[in-house]
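Need the bound structure for copper (II) ion, inputs here:
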Amino acid sequence: MAGGAVAAGAVSRMALAALPEAVSQTSAATMAPLQPGSGRPYHPVVTLNGWTLPWRTNQGVKEFHLVAEPVVREMAPGFKAHLWGYNGQSPGPTIEVVEGDRVRVFVTNRLPEHTAVHWHGQRLPNGMDGVTGLTQPAIAPGKTFVYEFVARRPGTFMYHPHADEMVQMAMGMMGFWVTHPKAPTPLIERVDRDFCFLLSSYDIEPGSYTPRIATMTDFNLWTFNSRVFPGIDSLHVRQGDRVRIRIGNLSMTNHPIHLHGHEFSVTGTDGGPVPKAARWPEVTTDVAVGQMRQIEFVADAEGDWALHCHKSHHTMNAMGHAVPTLIGVDHGALARKINNLIPDYMVMGERGMADMTEMEMPIPDNTVPMMTGEGPFGSVEMGGMFTVLKVRAGQKPGDYGDPGWFKHPAGTVARESVAALAEPSRSTSGGGQAMPRRDASAASAEVRVRKPAGGHGRP
Ligand SMILES: [Cu+2]
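Answer from helper R.:
Posting the output first, comments after.
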């Protein structure tokens, strides 16, 4: 998808009376930023594994055409999900406008049930708010509705249905919206790179294609823009760039998003820019459900830096949760007996679960391994909400291409130590406490835990 916005001059009056062309996207790759071909200039965003919707200008109004429809989303190479989305993808395309723009969005419903679109966070006339039954009738299948309002406030927004929401959001209907400032403001700094993505989660049984729509908490796929690691593209920046990352959360739980190697500030929230005096440096920011956060930092440290949700279960792909902890359990004798009956029986988990990444066990068609991703030093042992910020001195301005793995300067990679191990010194003190012990002889006893047979102590 090269090219910019559809120029108004190229379209006849007759054509302008018709609906704007519905542009569709079949690829899940990260598209180059869509440079504005008309209207006020701005610095466009890059949507992670996504794209920006082209528009046409009709007598000064920016016109977009969203089509709500079933889509096939490649969530990672070799893993396709049957979702609902907009214009061929889930999430739908990012909509970018400028503060003060009059915007007209046509929404055509090609779903099997009614829908509506809520413009999350926007100031707009009440009847444009998109809440089925409350502010408008539902858009029936086959019908097209038009929303029109002025993008009054610059910032980070989202769009999603307010009709059969549980089903439609579990199926992937959502998109990003960015309103750029019309003039420089002290609170909205110029940045060199501006990335955005949505947080969403799905419950797709390994081997199947369609999410379960009634799941409330036990999702098995945690996504940036409906992609799971290693299917999520990395973010490529030039050393010294001022970088903004906009994140919106339309999943069912909060996500503490953590960046390695840099400190950032939250410069914007759902409600707009954060006053300078209210900003503080951090390395993790929690994005709660329904919230948008924009973080900013100067990418001054070269390298391949992880960017991920810090809930460890959210950096894994499809897995069962009924896994017993077997760390420290010696299965040897048991395994030999079972092998007499089942030759392929294999012990898992007695040294932790990192082995899982190397086992290359057969998995059902159409799913992804639980933890995977081949890095320059071996498996990254991750899935879900994980990607990499690549900071390079040699990255050209405006080049979003992948520079490959970081070449570490000699002597700067953690390495095996070959020094002799000294005997560890151990304390024999029982420690102090507010109340004296009744039995002083127990002060240095080691703790022994005995679990009752049966009940909680099941193997
Ligand atoms: Cu998370």
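Comments: The first strand starts at residue 46 and ends at 47. The pocket of copper (II) ion is lined by residues 222, 255, 309, 311, 314, 385 (CB under 6 Å).
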